Amino acid sequence: MNKTIDAGDFNRILNKYLANINAEFLERWNLLVPTIEDKEFIEVIIGLLSRQISITHYYLSSPNTWNGDIGTIILRSICENVINISWILKDDSINRARMFIVYGLGQEKLQLEHRKNEMNNGEVSEEEIQMVEYMENSLNQEKYTFLTDVNIGSWSDKSILKIAEEADCLDFYHLAFTPFSNSAHGTWNHLIKYSLRKSSNPLHNLLRRPIFYNLEPDITFAELAMKYLSKSLRKFDNYFNQKIVSKDSYEIYLEDLENLLINKDDNNTSQ
Fold first, then answer.
1. Residue 81 scores a pLDDT above 80
2. Which distant-in-sequence residues (6+ apart) come within 8 Å of 105 by Cβ?
3. Cα–Cα distance measured from residue 48 to residue 40, given in angstroms and rounded to the nearest whole number
4. CB 180 within 8 A of CB 190
């Protein structure tokens, strides 16, 4: 049975998914009623979801990255996003969101101070001066730099493993985040799969040589991004208890894909 999918047909259901996920997100946003007390919390959660959707859009638009070498780097970032959302929504949400904000502003201040120090040690262009001024003005709009603390640890003061455990995401951490981290960090077990191959020449004594694999796109990796986005949206829905009308975009995609394969099989049978 031929399971080959026409590229045009697949792009059609992929574009439909992207349109559906935008509609899903907009529906949730429109149902939110922020208050003064939870303003920062809402901004953090919506920001994290918005980032995950943006990454998913770019990723799904780049089929050459749908593989175990490059795609897993992007999926690792998505996995961390899922864990962060899950932990913030799990308990003490407003305080955890503020921790996320304070850490991010501190990192921006740290980057600003590094750039200022670099400017003091050499010639400075007008563009560099303007960039530093822009960074400082932007930071001051959030919180004055002299009031901004810098935390050189993690934003949650916990390891990602610990917050995954507390957020009931331990299996997700072990089965997705950890192996994808190997790709992001380029660990040895990743290199021997994708960057090295043992030489077939007996004189080389099985020396591994560099290799570039021209990997074909695998939609499994694209589907993981959709699956993880659906996971984040379910976390959001469970917390806010909104009455969502839109059907899960990932479920619609799977139904469309199944129908595409059925039609393909029917066409092959009739030929």
1. yes
2. 139, 142, 143, 148
3. 12
4. no
Provide the phi-psi class of 211: left if phi over 0, else alpha when psi is between -120 and 50, else beta: beta
User: Considering the chain, what is the average pLDDT of its residues?
Assistant: 89
pTM above 0.90, yes or no: no
> What would the DSSP string read from start to end of 199-249?
-S-GGGTT-EEE----PPP-HHHHHHHHHHHHHHHHHHHHHH-----SPPH
Mean pLDDT over 255-269 rounds to: 78
195/5 Cα distance (integer angstroms) = 29
Q: Are 252 and 27 in contact (CB under 8 A)?
A: no
How far apart (Å, rounded) are the C-alpha atoms in residues 17 and 198? Answer: 41
CA separation for the pair 67, 180 (Å, rounded): 11
The amino acid at residue 1 is M
**Number of Cβ atoms within 10 Å of the Cβ of 245:** 9
What 3-state class would DSSP assign to 258?
A: helix
Give the three-class secondary structure for 73. helix
What separation in angstroms does the CA of 9 have from each of 12, 65, 109, 214?
A: 5, 20, 48, 24
In angstroms, the CA 253 to CA 250 distance is: 5
User: Pseudo-torsion of CA 256, 258, 260, 264, nearest 10°?
Assistant: -170
Q: Are 31 and 46 in contact (CB under 8 A)?
A: no
Q: Can you tell me the distance from the alpha carbon of 109 to that of 197, in angstroms, rounded to the nearest whole number? A: 44
